[in-house]
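### Sample
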Amino acid sequence: MSDYSYHNATVESAVDAQTEKAIKDIHTSLPAKVIDFNSTLQTVTLAAQVKQILIDGKTVQIPPLMDVPVNFPRGGGFAVTFPLQAGDEGIAIFSERCIDGWHTSGKATEPLDYRFCDLSDAMFIPGICSRPNTIKGFFTDGLSLQTLDGSTFIRITNGKILIKGEIEQNGGFVSSADVVASGISLTNHVHGGVSSGGSKTSGPQ
């Protein structure tokens, strides 16, 4: 403790000092930036964005967090994926116990090490960001799946889906209602220049 003195130590102050020291070795979560992303293993190398304070008051950068599994929303046979780039922000959370056995096998295992809330057992949730990196022009009227600059998006509001950007479709298209392209109805358009024989019609109107 800051007011702890070797010359007037008591049992209580000694216990308090040891407790404070132990608490400082417990890690719960830290903001972090991506250094490198492995898309095959879906792991990242991270740089913690809050420095560590030493006993003498000096601050040091926490060593890079290696082989950190990334959270991508998934379940029921579906997943939402996106590439991560160096500099992307998020939060690193630290498991209560060693995750090495589970991470390697995908099964429930005994902890392979006795460490608790250790920097070695980080998991990464991308997206939580600092104020300078907030999403510009935040869409508040519904759900938006978009590029950060807003140049391309899929936006869902009550009863409507709006898409901005080129669409490449691989598969059929079924519509229970009319389709209108450049102001021309697929169901109700007409063709001019119709005559018998092998002549072709003019374009739709």
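The longest strand covers residues 29-38. This sample (Phage protein Gp138 N-terminal domain-containing protein) is used throughout the tutorial notebook.
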